[in-house]
Amino acid sequence: MLGDTKLKTLQELIDNSTQEELIWISGYLAGLLRNGAPAEPATKPAVQKLTLAFGTDTGNSKKLASTFASKAKKSGVHVKLQSLDQYRLSDLPKEEYFLVVISTHGEGEPPAAAKKFYDYIHENTARLDKLNYAVLALGDTSYPLYCKAGEDVDVRLQTLGAARLLPLQKCDTDFETEASAWFEDVLKTLGTAPSTTRSAPVVHKKSHHKRNYLGTILSNVNLSGRGSEKQTHHIEIEASDVDYQPGDSIGIVPENPSEIVEAVLQLVNASGNKKLLYREEEITVYDLLKKKLNIVYLPERVVKQYAAIVMQEIPSTRIDLLNLLKIYPVKDAAHFEEVIGILEPITPRLYSIASSLAAHSGEVHLTVALDHFTVNDEVGHGLCTNYLVNLPEHTSFEFYIHKNSEFKLPQASKDIIMIGPGTGIAPFRSFIEERDASGASGRNWLFFGDQHFQSDFLYQTEIQSYLQTGALTRVDVAFSRDQPEKVYVQHKVRAKGQEFYQWLEAGACVYLCGAKEPMGVDVEDAVVQVIREFGNKTTEQAQGYLSQLKEEGRYQKDVY
User: Fold this and answer.
1) Domains with residue ranges and CATH for the chain
2) pTM of this prediction?
3) Element (H, E) at 232
């Protein structure tokens, strides 16, 4: 007989186990009694091998796919795990079980690593009658084309004759719980059904959403000096209960300029006070145009719908609503309400957090450069950067935290190399503050660059102070316009190549933040050159070395 404590433990184990787990336990115990050694599980999954492919931009799809592969292997399923940019497309018609984890990038597009696969399935008509598949799509519900790349892949595979194992699963930015539940359904389906299964999964209702915080502007200061061609602001926001980690970003939905909203209403002779139903909420036309709907730089798909409403031929283009109304006017205010129905929500913009809670409790800091451009000899400004740099002190607004698990500090003892020109300095200010506050023993090396030393050296006083106190081990700067020949951060990386490579060999982690092109590409090329020259390697070997750094999480990027 078992004692009360052991009997209680056994009963708890039985109560919390699935049918399959109870079968396994039964077989395990029978084996122990028979042979005095652990036995194999009494049952094996009906499906014993599958391909798990991922297409990622920030690394979330890869992280999930790797976790899924590990779970599947523990369940007795052999998994071929591959990035979609490495997947051999000619293998697709031969596949029997194929899982895809894919994010959506930009205007509903697949990530760069998945484009080859995406184009292949849309341009080819080869039948996939053997294929059983399931798609997990990652996205952000704040964007109009939520999970569009995943939707497209799911529909196209079915069109080519493949059979869904499970319906498409869409996941928002807080994807972990839903994604895990989806894969549990996948394993159940694979473990109990033959290859022709069409069973539906358990429906997992979303029980959590992005949390919105209310922030208040504490200060909004232009960091750019006299004579600068830029306007870069340091913005401090108070939000007492805010929670984030260095490397995370802030998500902000900007408001449209009041003067543009008023000009639109005047042009169509509409009342801004009239209330309309929007997403099960009554809201005035003015607030809809001001706070909810995108009215600047409309995408081509919206312009096409507008053309149908006004029954005119309009060239495929991106254009502001105000200009569209001027060139192709509506009949009256009622006609304009049809236009309101096709306008998409204002999409959130993400900005790297430039502070650490360890140094600034209850605050979020940003580094924001006013985006400006010229169209038809008229100077325009980015909607969100213009909104942010003009927010006065004490103004309140909502934001959310966008977690970035692929851009995180290593152990405190590890050395780090940070490469961040321009506003790319933002997360590294957070990194330095965090490492300084926590007393991290690892060395910290910063590469910073901008146009002019005198006017564009962002956070110069702080950086010099961190050098003096030892929070920064060394700093290398590149000011591109201070000499006849332009000098950028990638040139400084190559110039310090020997020491850079020594840090890599000693285990340092490299972080890169800023413009994706050309800076991100040029810096990566410079790192490969450094590895090749000072590591005495061929170009192919140097690229392999860099790939290994990425696999180990020692080369991380936050580029845009």
Assistant:
1) 49-192 (3.40.50.360), 212-253+347-402 (2.40.30.10), 258-340 (1.20.990), 416-559 (3.40.50.80)
2) 0.78
3) strand 232-238
